[in-house]
Specification:
- The chain is α/β, with parallel strands linked by helices.
- Helix content is 30%, strand content 28%.
- It is built from 7 helices and 11 strands.
- A 6-stranded mixed beta sheet has the order 6-5-4-7-8-11. Strands 1-3-2 form a 3-stranded antiparallel beta sheet.
- Helix 2 runs antiparallel to helix 3 and helix 5 packs parallel to helix 6.
C-alpha cells in the first residue's frame, strides 16, 4: 500500500490546548512569536528583559518580552457511512473515505497532534470510533475495514457526533456526500459551531456530469433501496445537471453562513486540495 499523502493545516484561531505543539497557542511560553510585554515579577527570566521597554516604564520595574507558546491541537474526522456512501463508480466513495482517513491521520501525526475518528451511519458504532490520541497504529486496519464495510441506512449518526468531540475547539474534517435536508445540515453545523469545521463534499461525476444525451438509465436511491429507470434525453440531462449545480450553491451558502468553506471531491482523494485550502487560509 502506498504511503499516505501529507499536508499542512492550522486552526482559523489559536489552539486552546495547553500542551506544547506546532500551532499558535493562547498561552505565553517558549515560542518565537512576540506577543506582549509583561512584568518581571510575573516572569522572572533575565534572558527576556527588554531594557528599552523597562526604561520607558513609568513605574520603574523591569519589563520582559512574552512570546506565544506553540500548542498541540485535537483533530477529528467525521465520516458519513450511510448507504449513499457505498456508491462505487470510477472513484468509489469507500476508497475516498479510506484514503482521506490515512492522509489526515498521517498529517496529524507528522504535526505531533492528537487524531480521532468517528464513522457515522444510522448511529455511531463502536467499530468506527477512535478517541483522539497520538497513536495512529490502528489507522491502516481501520482504512482497510472501511473499504470493504457494508454501508447501510441513513446518516442520523452525524447529529450524534458532537457529543463525542471535546468541549475545547478542535479541527474537524466532516466528510459526506451531504445528500441530506438543508435544515438537518444547518442543525449539524450549529452543533459543531464550537469547532473549526472543514466540509469535504464527496460527489461522483457519474451521478450528474457524464450523462448521455439519449438512453435508458437506472437510478437507485441507495438509502431507500428504490430503483427507477429513466429515459435520458437532452432536456432531462440539463435538468439533472441544473439540480446538482443548485444543490452545490445551496451547500456553499449553508456552510459559509456558519463560517466554513466546503471542498468538493469529485474524483479521487488528493491531499493537494486540502493543502491549497489551508494555504489560502494563511494568505487570508
Amino acid at each position: 500500500m502506498a504511503q499516505p499523502e501529507i499536508f499542512q493545516y492550522r486552526l482559523s484561531e489559536h489552539s486552546p490546548r495547553n500542551f506544547p505543539g506546532a500551532h499558535a497557542g493562547r498561552l505565553h511560553g517558549n515560542g518565537q512569536i512576540f506577543k506582549s510585554y509583561g512584568s518581571w515579577l510575573d516572569c522572572p527570566d533575565p534572558r527576556r528583559i527588554d531594557l528599552r521597554a523597562s526604561m520607558l516604564n513609568p513605574f520603574g520595574d523591569f519589563k520582559v518580552r512574552l512570546y506565544q507558546q506553540p500548542s498541540m491541537l485535537d483533530v477529528y474526522m467525521l465520516a458519513d457511512l450511510s448507504a449513499s456512501m457505498a456508491y462505487q463508480g470510477q472513484y468509489p466513495k469507500p476508497q475516498i473515505i479510506a484514503e482521506a482517513l490515512r492522509s489526515i491521520a498521517a498529517s496529524v501525526a507528522s504535526a505531533g497532534d492528537s487524531f480521532g475518528f468517528l464513522g457515522c451511519g444510522s448511529n455511531i458504532d463502536a467499530r468506527w470510533r477512535k478517541p483522539a490520541s497520538r497513536d495512529i497504529s490502528t489507522i491502516e486496519s481501520l482504512a482497510i475495514s472501511l473499504r470493504t464495510a457494508s454501508y447501510q441506512g441513513g446518516n442520523a449518526g452525524l447529529l450524534q457526533a458532537p457529543e463525542y468531540l471535546p468541549k475545547r475547539r478542535a479541527l474537524v474534517f466532516l466528510l459526506s456526500d451531504f445528500h441530506i435536508p438543508l435544515k438537518r445540515l444547518a442543525q449539524l453545523l450549529l452543533a459543531l459551531s464550537g469547532h473549526d469545521v472543514v466540509p469535504l463534499v464527496v460527489w461522483s461525476q457519474a451521478e450528474y456530469a457524464n450523462l448521455p444525451q439519449w438512453g435508458l438509465l437506472n437510478y437507485q436511491d441507495m438509502e431507500l433501496g428504490v430503483s427507477r429507470t429513466l429515459l435520458m434525453r437532452p432536456a432531462l440531462k440539463q435538468k439533472i445537471q441544473q439540480a446538482f449545480a443548485q444543490r452545490r450553491a445551496q451547500l456553499q451558502s449553508c456552510f459559509r453562513r456558519l463560517g466554513s468553506e466546503p471542498i468538493f471531491i469529485t474524483k479521487s482523494y488528493q491531499a493537494g486540495q486540502l493543502a491549497q485550502y489551508f494555504q489560502r487560509r494563511m494568505v487570508a
